From TrEMBL:
Keywords: Glycoprotein, Hydrolase, Membrane, Transmembrane, Transmembrane helix. GO terms for cellular component: plasma membrane. The keyword 4Fe-4S does not apply. The chain crosses the membrane at residues 42-63, 88-110, 122-142, 162-184, 482-501. One of its GO terms (molecular function) is glycerophosphodiester phosphodiesterase activity. This is Glycerophosphodiester phosphodiesterase domain containing 5a. It comes from Mastacembelus armatus (zig-zag eel). Belongs to the glycerophosphoryl diester phosphodiesterase family. PROSITE patterns: GP_PDE, PROKAR_LIPOPROTEIN. SUPFAM superfamilies: PLC-like phosphodiesterases (SSF51695). GO terms for biological process: lipid metabolic process; positive regulation of neuron differentiation. Residues 215-469 form the GP-PDE domain.
């Protein structure tokens, strides 16, 4: 007599094979397991989550730091001596690493939801470690050369906090389907958390009638994204894009002529390495005006294309830029006077061994008078020699208390955006102290400062800010409260509904007999949709003395038929 075990039928699990195959190289059914993951694999899951959070922070930092990419490249240049766009490889590697880690994390979450054992493939473990170590080294490097830039994270939250709150709610709601399946299947409890609004002060949460006038835009070194910085063509471009004032960096030449130069040397923005190769590392102030005037100050812009804008220039514009020379302070002020504009001067005092060390003030004042511009339209830093300044406006880059401002008689501040909080700006304006914030190159930062009431900003990208006629977003406090309360309630209702549905579905599955599920699957599906993984026959010795293998060889077709019909009739 032949005894048969009921036919075991398995449906194809393409999605499970895809998830376990890519994550742990477990493509076959027999390679997978629904046992609890080992502590070692749980540790790797924690490392994966930590890598994702660190990369999320790193990616967000570079997104908001786009406002200061020019500053970053300039800092790197001062260290390396070579001018190149260092942000390109950073952004490319960040994008690849974040995409890779995010994909692995999604696969791990699916493992947990489907009840599969975590088993990260060794190649992925190497990749996760390499990505984590690269990100940590990047963080250390940025902290070394660009530590002040971390402040932009808090500044950006003034604009993005409401949207991050809604995004976090959407993510939690989406994950609840996967988490619910795991929690109910493992019969574990989960802590329910009701999200509250992020506690950040957002200046743009105000009533429309309280919005201050649009801040004036100052062309910082002209329009350096469209033409070489601190050149006449750059200032002309800035005026064409509606700036109210021009800002320039002033250096005093060996013979006392104030000229426009940001760097300590002439290497980056001129061809001094070709004209005076032996002096290319000398301080720019130790060149005479005749020597400085002989240098080309535009060809470097066409060759390096620091902002990827050269291709947008016409042949005429490129020819004009290629023939630019170093601009003097008198030329810049005359241009501002003709355009009925004002000027903000950042003066770099000569070193002590310079022959004009004691007369730099008079040299600058002489240039202002020679240019014929009204002294009331000229503001300069540093805030020194106030007793000698008559008619000229002076500002300071220091963040001072109101007591210090009154003692020093200051009426204007020029502050970095990281030092100008919404509260400080309101205090300064209430005491009739004008505030200019720099550098402001992105619409989101411009919108924040607009809502804060800042009267003017200094920008490297006036062509970008010109396209911002209104803050990016603006809403009243009541509207904001309604949005976050409604989103919280809707998210909570959806999560509760998902958990209820998953519990009902799991309880329905558990009420079925496994044999009934198998038989119903056989009855519903055609034979070509079923993959027969195993058929085991248990044979017993008959009285006629035939072995089990002999009986099978003699009656293979009848045996299979009896088994199939018998299995379906049970």
């Amino acid at each position: 007599m032949v005894k048969h075990q009921p036919l075991q039928v398995y449906e194809k699990q393409v999605f499970v094979s895809f998830v376990t195959g890519i994550y742990g190289c477990r493509w076959k059914r027999y390679q997978r397991s629904q046992d609890d993951s080992s502590r070692w694999e749980c540790t790797w899951f924690i490392i994966l989550c930590s890598s994702f959070l660190l990369l999320l922070f790193w990616a967000y930092f570079w997104v908001v730091a786009q406002n200061d990419f020019n500053e970053f490249n300039w800092l790197v240049y001062n260290r390396s001596g070579e001018w190149r766009d260092e942000t390109i490889p950073i952004l490319a590697s960040t994008t690849v690493g974040f995409s890779y880690i995010s994909f692995l994390l999604i696969l791990a979450i699916f493992h947990i939801s489907l009840g599969q054992q975590l088993n990260l493939y060794w190649v992925h473990k190497i990749g996760v470690l390499a990505t984590l170590l690269s990100t940590i080294s990047g963080l250390v490097s940025v902290d070394d050369i660009w530590r002040d830039e971390w402040d932009i994270m808090l500044v950006s939250l003034q604009s993005t906090a409401p949207f991050l709150h809604i995004g976090a709610l959407a993510m939690v709601t989406a994950l609840s389907w996967l988490v619910a399946g795991y929690v109910i299947r493992s019969q574990r409890s989960i802590l329910k958390v009701f999200k509250t609004p992020l506690t950040f002060s957002c200046p743009c949460i105000i009533d429309r009638h309280n919005l201050k006038p649009r801040p004036d835009v100052i062309g910082r070194r002209g329009a350096p994204m469209l033409a070489p910085e601190n050149t006449l063509v750059s200032f002309n471009r800035a005026l064409q894009h509606g700036v109210s004032s021009l800002e320039a960096d002033i250096t005093i030449s060996l013979d006392g002529v104030p000229f426009l130069m940001r760097d300590r040397t002439l290497r980056r923005t001129t061809d001094v390495s070709k004209v005076f190769p032996a002096r290319q590392f000398d301080d720019a102030s130790f060149f005479s005006w005749t020597e400085i005037r002989s240098l080309n100050a535009g060809q470097w812009f066409l060759e390096s294309d620091p902002y990827w804008t050269v291709k947008t220039l016409t042949a005429k514009d490129q020819s004009r830029i290629g023939n630019q020379t170093v601009c003097s302070l008198v030329e810049m002020l005359r241009l501002a006077a003709r355009a009925n504009s004002s000027a903000l001067l950042n003066i770099c005092r000569p070193p002590p061994e310079h022959p004009r060390y004691r007369s730099w003030f008079m040299d600058t004042l002489w240039a202002v008078q020679k240019a014929g511009i009204s002294q009331k339209r000229v503001t300069w830093t540093p805030d020194s020699d106030r007793g000698r300044v008559r008619g000229l406006q002076q500002t300071t880059n220091e963040k001072l208390s109101m007591k210090e401002i009154r003692q020093r008689g200051i009426t204007s501040l020029t502050l970095h955006y990281s030092k100008a909080s919404h509260k400080d700006i309101q205090e300064y304006l209430a005491n009739n102290v004008s505030v200019t914030v720099y550098p402001v190159n992105e619409p989101w930062l411009y919108s924040i400062l607009w809502c804060s009431g800042v009267p003017s900003v200094s920008s490297d990208a006036p062509q970008v800010l010109r396209k911002v006629p209104y803050p990016i977003w603006l809403m009243s406090q009541n509207a904001y409260n309604f949005i976050w309360i409604t989103s919280d309630l809707v998210s909570l209702a959806i999560v509760i509904g998902i958990f209820g549905f998953q519990k009902w579905r799991m309880s329905g599955i558990q009420n079925y007999n496994p044999e009934q599920i198998m038989l119903s699957a056989v009855a519903r599906r055609s034979s070509r949709d079923i993959n027969i993984m195993k058929e085991k026959l248990i044979l017993s010795e008959l009285n006629n003395g035939l072995s089990s293998t002999e009986e099978l060889s003699l009656y293979p077709e009848n045996s299979y038929a009896r088994h199939s019909h018998g299995g379906l009739s049970n």
